[in-house]
Design a protein that fits this description.
The complex is a heterodimer.
Chain A lengths: L1 E2 L9 H11 L7 H8 L10 E7 L5 E7 L2 E7 L10 E2 L16 E4 L5 E8 L6 E8 L10 E2 L9 E8 L5 E7 L1 H8 L7 E8 L10 E7 L6 E5 L3 E10 L3 E9 L5 E6 L16 E4 L5 E9 L4 E9 L4 E9 L5 E8 L2 E9 L4 E8 L10 E6 L7 E5 L2 E8 L3 E6 L6
Chain B lengths: L5 H21 L4 E4 L3 H8 L5 E6 L4 H16 L5 E8 L3 H10 L7 E4 L4 H8 L9 E5 L5 E5 L4 H14 L1
Parallel strand pairs in B: 1-4, 2-3, 3-4
Antiparallel strand pairs in B: 2-5, 5-6
Classes of the chains: A mainly beta, B alpha/beta.
Chain lengths: 413, 168
């Protein structure tokens, strides 16, 4: 607890104006402008909520988003210049979660299967289901969605994340409250929730039973995933330490339920009995079993967005760097391509949201100054970075600009 | 308006009646739009007086613990100066009203975020708040403010109550 005077800061208007000029170079269109010509019921990547994007093996861009209680999929053959008519994934409406920390996930398998997961809210009391559907005909039709959490309980199963390894193991991980329910039934305390996962070795046709990764996770932050070797994944999530501290943990998950290397990955000492709604980002570094992490904390030791490396073998983090401690800064996303590491995040200057970018050409040792990519005085989603062999791209939705998909690497192919 | 399709016209009219009925029933709660100027207005209302501000959301489990505490306090001390703001979009007001009702807070005036640009609304409350919930503030009569992230304790609330009673 602390005391501060409620004085509001001056607004750097000039920065905002400069940012708006940058924004007009985008090809994206606001939903409002599209609806003027195409009708109020238009379903489009520019009108939907909480989009995710990925590339397939041919370089086609695929986007999943939520609109009117349905998950939709649309593709683009010109890297976001134009999009196909969206195809509905779940035929029956579901209370599909769509917010910064909860969005449909989409992955294209090498043979073209389209794999999707999302969370469906089932009540006002933090309950939900982990849902999965796929297409084996190039996105013309999708399988009837099924529930992957196998406990049959009406409790929390939310904040899903999806990752496909090079060897073809599909990992689906989420935040789960089954163990909390069990403890409550025995009148025992259970701080937070748990992390669970399931694996499919046949591109989503079947899934393994659910495996537990950890007890006592934070209940409300997205989980970050990155490859570990050819078969495994490393995951980074917000964990509760000593019943009070909400810092991050890392672990390696194997295809048959093996959980190893569970360690505390960030030490910020954020003593908080609350929902930060602020999940981390994790990508593989150049050297094996080394990772780049970016996250938010308002801990006693660190306040703001931070970057650090993590070494699985040493079980230690290094190169801790404060990225942005300005109040309002949040939701970092990392991506790497061809020796270049990019970090984007959202800042807010009192009037406008500013999408910030920093670059590192030496695997995170040194970074460029922050550059403002976009500035908007309307609502916007968290920014996400995705990469393929041709570069790194920004995936970001805002009311003003619609869905923005933008190449960020220096030398686009 | 064209009248060449009376059935369609009739359907539209019924639709309008139906929608107004929904609108009326929705506004049977005590929830007001929270916009960029709302907090300045709330503070003006309480000028020179102490109050507690509690921010919560439907999606926040620890918030329910705090709402329960506040509901119990309000029941015991109906004049306790309490301002409750939900950071959910006001389109979800029915869900929020049900939850407030569960904790005996249905009858107090409360607010819900009425602008999708939540960063600006959060800033209007406190530029240094990162959005974590529950978030609360003790505003004192001398204009000093104390902020708190995470669930308030009964001791914190009782302490503030004693303080208010002394100053009044």
């Amino acid at each position: 607890m602390r005391i501060f005077p409620m004085t509001f800061k001056a607004i750097p208007l000039l920065l905002t104006l400069a940012g708006s000029l940058l924004a007009h170079t985008s090809h994206a269109q606001s939903c409002a402008s599209l609806r003027e010509t195409q009708g109020e019921d238009l379903v489009s990547v520019h009108c939907g909520s909480a989009p995710s994007a990925t590339f397939d093996a041919t370089g086609r861009l695929w986007v999943a988003f939520v609109q009117n209680k349905h998950v939709y999929v649309s593709f683009s053959d010109d890297k976001g210049g134009s999009y196909s008519t969206p195809v509905m994934v779940n035929k029956e409406a579901e209370d599909t979660e769509y917010n910064g920390e909860n969005r449909p996930k989409i992955i294209l398998a090498p043979q073209g299967e389209i794999l999707l997961s999302w969370t469906t809210k089932t009540s006002s009391n933090f309950t939900g289901l982990i849902r999965f559907a796929r297409s084996t005909d190039g996105g013309r039709t999708f399988s009837t969605p099924r529930t992957i959490n196998d406990d049959g309980l009406n409790t929390g199963h939310r904040f899903d994340s999806l990752y496909l390894t090079e060897s073809g193991n599909l990992y689906l991980t989420w935040i789960d409250k089954r163990d909390m329910e069990k403890s409550l039934a025995q009148e025992e305390e259970y701080p937070g929730a748990a992390i669970y996962y399931a694996v499919s070795k046949d591109f989503g046709e079947t899934f393994s039973p659910n495996y537990r990764v950890s007890h006592n996770s934070c209940e409300c932050c997205r989980i970050a995933m990155a490859p570990q070797g050819k078969d495994n994944v490393a995951i980074l999530w917000r964990q509760i330490y000593n019943s009070q501290i909400r810092d991050h943990a890392i672990a390696v998950l194997g295809p048959d339920g093996q959980v190893s290397g569970v360690e505390r990955a960030t030490v910020d000492d954020w003593y908080i009995d609350a929902c930060p709604h602020h999940g981390p980002s994790l990508v593989q570094a150049d050297s094996a079993d080394n990772y780049h992490m970016a996250w938010f904390s308002a801990g006693d030791l660190h306040k703001g967005i931070y970057y650090a490396r993590y070494d699985l073998a040493q079980a230690d983090s290094a190169q801790l760097l404060e990225i942005d401690a300005t109040p309002g800064a949040g939701h970092p996303s990392l991506a790497q391509h061809d020796g270049e590491l990019l970090l984007v995040w959202k800042g807010f200057n009192g009037l406008a949201t500013q999408l910030q970018l920093m670059r590192s050409n030496d695997d995170g040792k040194s970074w460029s100054a922050a550059q403002t990519l976009f500035s908007t005085e309307q609502a916007s989603d968290h920014p996400l970075l995705i990469s393929n062999e041709s570069g790194i791209y920004l995936s970001w939705a805002s009311n003003e600009l619609g869905y923005v998909f933008k190449e960020l690497t220096h030398d686009p192919q | 308006m064209t009248l060449n399709n009376p059935l369609r016209y009739c359907a539209r009219w019924l639709n309008a009646v139906f929608l107004s009925a929904i609108a009326l029933s929705v506004h049977a709660d005590n929830i007001q739009d929270f916009g960029t100027q709302s907090f300045a207005q709330i503070k003006q209302q309480y000028a020179g007086k102490a109050f507690v501000l509690s921010l919560w959301s439907i999606d926040c489990a620890p918030c329910r613990v705090e709402l329960k505490l506040l509901g119990e306090l309000k029941k015991r001390e109906p004049n306790f100066p309490l301002v409750v703001i939900s950071t959910d979009p006001i389109e979800n007001r029915e869900e929020a009203a049900d939850i407030l009702d569960d904790y005996g807070l249905k009858d107090i005036t409360s607010w819900m975020f009425a602008d999708a640009f939540v960063e600006r609304l959060r800033y209007s409350v406190d530029p240094t708040w990162h959005g974590e919930l529950p978030r609360s503030y003790f505003f004192r009569a001398d204009s000093s403010v104390e902020s708190h992230s995470g669930v308030l304790t009964p001791e914190q609330l009782e302490g503030f109550l004693v303080e208010i009673e002394k100053t009044n």
